[in-house]
Amino acid sequence: MRIVAISMLIFLLSFSRSKKDLLSLSAPGNITLGGLFPIHSGVVDLYADFSSEPHSSACVNFNQDAFLWMYGMIFAIEEVNRKETLPGITLGYQIFDTCATKSKAVEATLTFLEDIGNGKAHAGQIGTSPLVIIGDGDSAQTVPVAEILSPNCIPQISYGATSSMLSNNQRFQTFLRTVPSDIHQTQAIAQLIVHYGWNWIAIIASDDEYGKNGVASLQPALEKYGVCIEFTLWITKNTFRKTYKKSVEVVQASTVEVIVAYAIDSDIELLMKELALQKINKTWVATEAWISSHLINIPENADLLEGTVGFDLSSYHLENFNVHLQQYVTNNENNFVQEYWRKVFNCEFGSHIRNTSSGRPHCTIGNVMNNPSLSQLQNSDTGYVFYAYSAVYTVVHAIKDMLNCSVGQGLLHDGQCADISSIKPWQVMKYLKNVDFKVYGHRFKFNENGDPSARYNLKNWQRSSNGEMVIKHVGHYFGDHRSTNNSDVTGNLHFTDTLLWKRNSRKPPVAHCVSSCLPGQKRQYQAFTPYCCYHCVSCRNGYFSNQTDADNCTQCPPDHWSSVDRTQCLRKVDNYLAWNSPTGIVFEIISAFCFCLTILAAAIFIQHHDTPVVKASNFHICMLLLFALACCFLSVYPFFGKPNEWTCIVRQPFFGISFSLALSCVLVKTLQVIVAFQYKNLLSDTLKQLKQLKLVIIVVLTSIEVVLSVIWYFLVSPHPLKNSEISLGIIYLQCFDSPSYYFSTIIAYNYLLGFICSILAYLVRKLPENFNEAKFIMFGVFIYFLVWTSFIPTYIVTFGEARVIVEIFAIVASAFGLLVCIFLQKCYIILLKPDINTVEHIRNSTFSHIVKKKKNVK
């Protein structure tokens, strides 16, 4: 349907148009190449009321860059003809000015195809249909041209259309280009932005195929690297005059410092001038469409565009190009040359000067050579000039391959060769796709989409010492031409020189929505805000980040904790009661001292076992009690040092059983005192029977504690534990003994034994003054109660080393209290009061106590 529609359009237009409406340039040849160049950058909008025959819009705004591109094609054709590169064949050209508008480009394309419709197909005649079309320079004009040429099987080679949409080989089957696809340039721009850490930018783009497809490729590439776009502003030269105020306001109100201008020079020319007047201070990222444009690089834009960085197509110096260009512009008087002189030198050139009233001076051959503006021609082979030149040589190499074809080895069906006297465009297309050649060292070989390899120069707008703006080559980018879509595009960006920014600063601008999050912080995102506009929050305890703009904080290992600034993890301090710690040494000495006192008391009792005091105290029970107290003092040592399997199993049962044995002995001693002095008590007979079973009582009461300890061991399975959840920066090395009520049962049982001892001791508190053992037992048990009552809440609220110290203190203090209260008085009498350590003295004291008690009863 599209082919039919285009054919009908050509047929209808062939009756209503005239070639005089198009600005053109031509030269004869056996083979004609068509050319499309935007020599002008716009048209005058003419309103047609159809009261008379409409005419094509007039072109305005001469584009000297496009004029040079055009001459790149002409220079190549003349060079081929001069060197006779194609024996027996001369090349001609027919070039039309598309005026950077689609309508003009379509109009020129239909003009090319008219000769086919009229049946003119004789080679060597001027006006015959071109074999290949070279152009256009802009994607916006190239796309409709390709849509017309492709159904008609006319090859098209663009020297400047970079839109990735043109890589669609299904839609544009006869389209090739000597410039790389924008898919590579967008990747290069993304890498440049990422290199400088910019993540908050804006985009200004042409509202055409070039801008739309460029932005469509650029946005995913930027999003891949986490770059946010504040706004995308679409502009065209045709609508900018109506909307320029709004466009300028958008740029002024933006918070971005970097703007990517993905547009052709003619579209942003007016915008740049207006922004320069408003003294907008932004950094610009340019594309190849305007980085070297003379429309943009004007003195008025110097302050605005200083520091601009962007990519340009790799340029090569064409031998003798500048010399031939000077001869061409001084020896020809066509319309394009005349406008070139008006634009560049502001003067009139040619014989028609007598008839002009422009007021410009007359440029003669003599004074032109001395004109300072002539120096502009010395570096005129830049931009698309080389690629227009290479497009011609692409056709030349295809024709050479056709000339050198051997029957049976051709590229056509069954190895056939084309008839060189009547070459068909579709035959040339087959050979164009298979060319592989180099021009000035630059290799041209097309991939399946008709795209060549990608190489860009990185350029930077810098202010020279005299204040003028110069464009400096500061790096390059190489892309893989095998890439066919966004997902597999690869390339490398390299810097070869220092970039200068605003006011010749070497420091690149900062382009962030917010300040970067510092190490020790992470980014926190909020709903309905751009990805790059986040809040910085400090990492939680136990987490850290050691880089800027971290998305998440990393959790420290279990044995580490985060530093105060949350930038690193520090090794946690092991908390336990070390053998060599000051506190540990103190308690080791105290426990050893108490143990020695216990051994001393035992030695005294053994040495004086036949004295009345020792006999009255029940020597065997006292020795068993001293043994239990000695074990209590020794039971603290498993609490020192790092916990291990053995110490965790032993420490609690050891001290619990030791105290049960000690308290059982104290209980039996209390029963012994009751039987000895409370003989009228109703329970005396029962107590006397219990006295005979004293060893059994001790064994039974102690066995209960042993059973509880065994149950505790099997139910709890105590083992070493590293507890790092209690406090920051500390690992508590402790024994796992939860649930706590098992341990509480062991403590409670000893507490119960002590309580019974205190009750019984209170009942017999009034004994002879010289032998009031029950009173001292009561004091000892009271100390035990006081210590362990204080121990319980203190033990609950402490951890690690402090908890161990509390338990050791409770063990030592309570055992020492029993030792002193029960044995100090006896040892004192044995050693220092031997005169009262006699049977007669004890008997008299006991008799006096009985008599006194009877008197009190009366």
How far is it from the N-terminal to the C-terminal residue, by CA? 140 Å
Strand content: 15-25%
> Can you list the strand order of the major beta sheet?
10-9-11-12-13-16-17-18
Which parts are unreliable, with pLDDT below 50 for 5 consecutive residues or more? 1-20, 119-127
Number of DSSP E strands: 27
Can you describe this structure?
By secondary structure, the protein is of the alpha/beta class. Helix 3 runs parallel beside helix 4 and helix 5 packs across helix 6. The chain is 45% helix and 15% strand. Strand 16 (454-463) and strand 17 form a beta hairpin. The radius of gyration is 53 Å and the shape is rod-shaped. The chain contains 24 helices and 27 strands. The longest helix has 33 residues, at 645-677. It starts with a helix and ends with a helix. The strands form 8 sheets. Strands 10-9-11-12-13-16-17-18 form an 8-stranded mixed sheet, with helices on both faces. A 6-stranded mixed sheet has the order 1-5-2-6-7-8, sandwiched between helices.
Please supply descriptive tags for the structure shown above.
single chain; 858 residues; alpha/beta; 8-stranded mixed β-sheet; 6-stranded mixed β-sheet; rod-shaped
Layout of helices and strands, plus pairs?
Blueprint: H1 2-13, E1 24-27, E2 31-37, E3 40-43, E4 59-62, H2 64-83, E5 91-97, H3 102-117, E6 132-134, H4 139-149, E7 156-158, E8 175-177, H5 182-195, E9 200-206, H6 209-224, E10 228-235, H7 240-253, E11 258-262, H8 265-277, E12 283-286, H9 302-305, E13 309-313, H10 321-331, H11 335-344, H12 365-368, H13 385-403, H14 425-432, E14 436-439, E15 442-445, E16 454-463, E17 469-479, E18 491-495, E19 521-524, E20 535-538, E21 543-544, E22 554-555, E23 560-562, E24 569-571, E25 573-575, H15 582-607, H16 612-616, H17 619-634, H18 645-677, H19 684-692, H20 694-716, E26 719-723, E27 730-736, H21 740-763, H22 773-797, H23 800-832, H24 839-857
Parallel strand pairs: 2-5, 2-6, 6-7, 7-8, 9-10, 9-11, 11-12, 12-13, 25-27
Antiparallel strand pairs: 1-5, 3-4, 13-16, 14-15, 16-17, 17-18, 19-20, 21-22, 23-24, 26-27
Helix pairs in contact: 2-13, 3-4, 5-6, 7-8, 13-14, 15-17, 15-23, 17-18, 17-23, 18-19, 18-20, 18-21, 20-21, 21-22, 22-23
